[in-house]
Amino acid sequence: MNTLLAIHPFLRCEDLSLMRPALALAGLALLLAALLWRRTRWRRAGRAAPADLHALLQMRKAAPPAKVADSAPPPAAKVPDAPPFDAARLDAMFGCDRRLQGEILALFVAETRDRLAGIAHALRCERTAPARVLAQEILDGSQSLGLLPLQALARQAVHAGFSNDTGALRRLHAELLMALDALSQAVTVLQTAGAAQADDRSGVGSRP
């Protein structure tokens, strides 16, 4: 306080009531100066922000867009389909003779086609009982040979026959036809392997 009075002699007064307004005016002046300085700083920052934002947008536009193909994961390798029969079961029943196995499975395929034709005729006549009996025969044959896909479909057809569900029987009949076609193709491959096996055996037996 003494320093302030020494710097400003005009503030010296025996009546201290005159110093209070002076100090109040000095504090108000400091406050206004701080507010003006802060406002000036905000204006400068506000002018610089759009420029920075514009530069950021320009950088984003200049960057090349990422390709979807590059970010997408590589397609999974296709797993080869398993044969519609149990090779170990066939080996246990008929030995490792692929030609014999192919002949037995070809006979089963022919009989199953006849049974499926009978199921189609029964469904046209709206008779679920004969369709159920034929489906049961397909189930028994496929179960004894270990033909799992055909066995599962035939079991569902038997249950649909007991429930008199004609719509389900028609759907299962179509699926049985497709499964039988897949089995027929696998039998052809098996017969080809059996013929090659027989040729190898005959070639070994004919050697001196």
Identify low-pLDDT runs. 10-16, 66-80
Mean pLDDT: 75
- Terminal residue distance: 131 Å
Radius of gyration: 47 Å
Overall geometry comes to elongated
The SS-based structural class is mainly alpha
DSSP strand content: under 5%
Strand segment count: 0
Q: Which sequence of SSEs, written as H and E, runs from N to C?
A: HHHHHHHH
Largest sheet: none
Number of helical elements: 8
Helix content: over 70%
Describe the structure.
The chain is mainly α. Helix content is 78%, strand content 0%. It contains 8 helices and no strands. Helix 7 (148-162) runs antiparallel to helix 8 (166-205). The model is unreliable at 10-16 and 66-80 (pLDDT under 50).
Q: What can be said about this structure in brief?
A:
The protein is mainly alpha-helical. Helix content is 78%, strand content 0%.
Task: State the main characteristics.
78% helix, 208 residues
SSE arrangement:
Elements lengths: L1 H6 L11 H44 L5 H4 L15 H8 L3 H27 L3 H18 L2 H15 L3 H40 L3
Helix pairs in contact: 5-6, 5-8, 6-7, 7-8
